[in-house]
Amino acid sequence: MKNLRALAAAAMLGLGSVAVAQQADTSLSYYLPANTSYSDAIPTPKQLLGYNVGEWHASHDQLAMYIRLMADASDRITLTEYGRTHENRPLYLLTVTSPKNHQNIEQIKELHRKLTDPAASGELNIKDMPAVVWMGYSVHGNEPSGSNAALLAVYHLAAAQGPEIEKLLEETVILIDPSINPDGMNRFASWVNTHRSKNLVTDPNSAEFDEVWPRGRTNHYWFDLNRDWLPLQHPESKGRLAKFHEWKPNVLTDHHEMGTNATFFFQPGIPSRNNPLTPERNFKLTQQMGTYHAKALDKIGSFYYTEESYDDFYYGKGSTYPDVNGAVGILFEQASSRGHAQESENGVLSFPFTIRNQFTTTLSTLEAAQAMREELLAHQRDFYKNALNESKKASVKAYVFGSEMDKAKAFHLAEIIRQHQIDVYRPKDSFKINNVTYTPENAYIIPTEQAQHRLIEAMFEKRTSFQDSLFYDISAWTFPLAFDLDYAPLTGRNFKSSQLGQRIDSLAFPAGEVVGGKSNYAYAFEWHGYYAPRALNQLMDRGIATRVASDKFTTAEGKQYDYGTILIPVSGQPVSAEELHRALQEVAQQNGLKVYALHTGFNPQGIKLGSPMMLPLEQPKVMMLIGDGVNSYDAGEAWHLMDERFGMRPTLIKTNDFNNVALGKYTVLVMAEGSYRNISKDKLRSWVQQGGTVIGMGQAAKWLSDNGIGNITFKEAKEDTLAQKPYADMSNTNGAQVIGGAIFETKLDLTHPLAYGYTDAQMPIFRSNTLFMERSKSPYANPVMYTATPLMAGYISKPNLQQLKGTAAVDVSSLGAGKVIAMPDNPNFRAFWYGTNKLFLNSIFFSQIIRGASARADEDAH
C-alpha cells in the first residue's frame, strides 16, 4: 500500500516512478519551451559533453569548455573571467543580449550605473533602458541543479529563434554566473559520477548520496560562499562583487537546493524576518515576480511554496545583498536528488527534474524582468534617491574608526568598505571622541550622506530589538566590532563635512620599517599589529631565535614596550648581523610593522633585555583534526587563517587516523567545533601530559570537559518548567532559544599571554551557541570573561542572556606538562572576525610560556 501511495504521489508531482527514473528523459525537448525553434549553428550541450544535460553531473571544466565555445559561436554572448578560485579555476561571467546592445554595451553599462546616482538618475529615460538581470547558479557546489541548468540557459539564449527571444534580448541584458563555486562543484560532481551505476540506484542508503567529508557545499577552504557577500574574504566573492557593482543589476537570482523530501521554494521568504532597512517595495516586487514563477511551475506540474521559509535579514547572502543595493534578490530552493535519482517522500526525484525546475524559473525570471522592466528600473532609481534623503535626516552623520597600534586591521576594514562602493575618507585633522584620538594617519571616516547610506547602516548598526526572534542566519555583524577597532558614530554635534580630508580612491597597505638603523645588539617589535604573528612565524621559518617579553619595559630612547613584545637578539643567530637586518626589513615591510633597533640591554624602567621574564620561544608544530565529526566550516576557518593569512603549515589529520599517528613531533593540536567520538581520549590525554597544547573550540571544548581532559566545567541546561504550550508554537518557541549569531562584550586580562597584543580590556566576541562555561576555581585560568551586561548587538533570549552573564569565554588549565585551552566560541568566524583572531594565534604561539597556577604560587613563595 505504501509503495502504491508513493507511486501515485510521484505521478502527481511529475517525479516519475523508480522504473521511469532509471530511464529519465534528458532530451532537450524535456527542458526547453515548446513551440520554440533553435539555430542549428549553435552547438547543443551534448555535442560538446557527449551526453545529455542531466544524464551525468557536469564537472566545472566541462561547463567552462561549453560556455567558452558558446561565446565563440554566438554574437549574443561575450565572456569575461572575473577571478580565479583558491584552486586556480576560472570564474566566468557571460553577458547575453542582442548584437545591437553588444555594440553599445559600455554605454548601456554607464547609463545603468547612473541610475544609482541620485544626482544623475533624474535625467535618465528609463522607458528606453534595458533591465539588467544577473543569474547566479550553485554557490553551494553540491547543489548542482543550478549549474547544470545554466548549460540549458546559455544554449536557449544563444540558439532560440523568433521575435519573442529577440525582444527579450533587446530589452534585457542577462548576466550569467554559471558556477559561483567551481571548486565545490568539481568535488561533488566527481563523487556522484564515480558512484553512479549504469542502472540508476535510487536507494537513499547508496554511497552516491552520501559524499565524504567535507562534501562539495563549500569552497577550497570549506567556506560557505553564500555568506561572503558582505565580508568579501575570498577571491570568488571579491571578483563577483566587482562585476556586480560594475553593472548594478535590477534582479539577481540565487539558485540553491534543499532537502530531498521537499518540493520547490521561491522568495519572498517569511515577511516578519525581512531586514527593516529593506524597503517594503522590494518585498512587493518579489511577490509580483513570484506570480510568474508560480505560473511557469504550474504549467509543468511542479509543486512549490513561498513566504513560508527562509528570510532576508543577513545582507551577506546572494539573495539578500541585492536588496540593500536597489535590486531584487530572489532565492530559489529546489529539492535535491543528491545524485542522479533518489527515492523521496514524493516518489523518485530525478536529477533532470531538478534541473528542469531551475531552468523553468530562470525563464520565468526573465519573463518577469522584461514585463516589469520599468518598475524595476524605477525602484532602483528611487531606492538610491530615498536612501540619500534618509541620510540627510539621520542623526548619525558619519562613522569614524581606526587604531593607533594596529593600522593593518583598520586598513582591511576600509578595504572591505571601499569594495562595496562606499566613499571612505581620512580625517583632515586629529580629533578626540570618547577619550579616543583619531588622526589622519590611523583613522578613516565614512560620511553617511551618500547613496549607499542603507548599506553603511547595515554594516555599522548595533541592533538589539527585532520583530521576529527566529533567524535563518546570524542576527548581528557590526563590522567595527568584528575588527575590535576603536569607532564612534558622529552626530551633527561632533561632525562637520569640513572634518573630511582626502577621499581614498586607492588604499595602500601600511608601511613597515626598521627604526634606528642596523643594530649589533638586538631588535624588538610589539605584538599589537595584526600581522605580528606572521612576522614571528617568518623569522622562525628562517631559524632566527626569538624571545617574548612577559612584562613591560622602557628603553633608553624613552619608548615603552608592552606585554608580548618580541625580542630578536643579534648574537647567537644562524645569520650575520647584516643578514638579520635585511631579513627584518623584509619582515617589517611585508607585515606593516615597526621593528626597533636596540643598542643596550640596560633599560631604565621595567625588565632588562636579559631578564628571565624574556622567555625563549620555539616554533609551534601544529596539527588540526579534520574529517568525520568535525564541523568543516570552523575547521576551514582555522585552516584558512593559518595557511592563507599567516603563512603557517598546519598538518591536517583525519579523525579516523588520529589513533594511529605518532604525535611526538607536534606541540599544538587544534580541535574545531565537532564531535570526536572516534579518537582515543587516553592517547590525547597522555600527549598533553607530556607537554602538548590542545585548543578546543565550541563542542570540542565540551568534549574535552566530558572526558576529563583539563579542568573545564559547563553549566547544565535549565529545564523549562512552564505549563502546557500549543503544539503549533513548538518550532517558534524552541527556535527563539537558539543563538544564531550575536555579539557580546568580554573583559580581558591584558597581562595574560593569551591577551598579548590587545590594548583595550573590553573586547567584542561573536557567539553562535548555548555553551556556557563556568568560571574556573583558579583565579588565573580565565583571561577572557563575559561581562555582567554582555549583549552588544544581535538577538539572544532573556533566559540565555541570564545564563551567559559572568561566564568564562576562555579557560586555560594545566594537565601534566601541557595545557588545555577551551573556547566555547569561534575566534575565526567566517574569516572577517579579525578582532578575536589573535586569541587563537596567541594560544598557538604563547601557550608554551603559560605557567600553571600552582607553579606561580611556588615561585611567589620563594
TrEMBL record:
GO CC aspect terms? extracellular space
Per the record, the GO terms for biological process are:
proteolysis
Query: Annotated Gene Ontology MF terms?
Result: metallocarboxypeptidase activity; zinc ion binding
Give every Peptidase M14 domain span.
56-355
Q: Which cofactor does it need?
A: Zn(2+)
Task: Please give the InterPro entries that the UniProt record associates with this protein.
Answer: Class_I_gatase-like, Peptidase_M14
Q: Where is the signal peptide?
A: 1-21
User: Keyword annotations for this protein?
Assistant: Carboxypeptidase, Hydrolase, Metalloprotease, Protease, Signal, Zinc
Write one Pfam family the protein is assigned to: Peptidase_M14
Which residues are named in the active-site annotation?
333
Q: Which PROSITE patterns match?
A: PEPTIDASE_M14 (PS52035)
Q: Does the keyword Protease apply?
A: yes
Q: Which SUPFAM superfamilies is this protein grouped with?
A: Class I glutamine amidotransferase-like, Zn-dependent exopeptidases
The entry sums up its family as follows:
Belongs to the peptidase M14 family.
- Protein's UniProt name: Zinc carboxypeptidase
Give the classification, highest ranks: Bacteria, Pseudomonadati, Bacteroidota, Cytophagia, Cytophagales
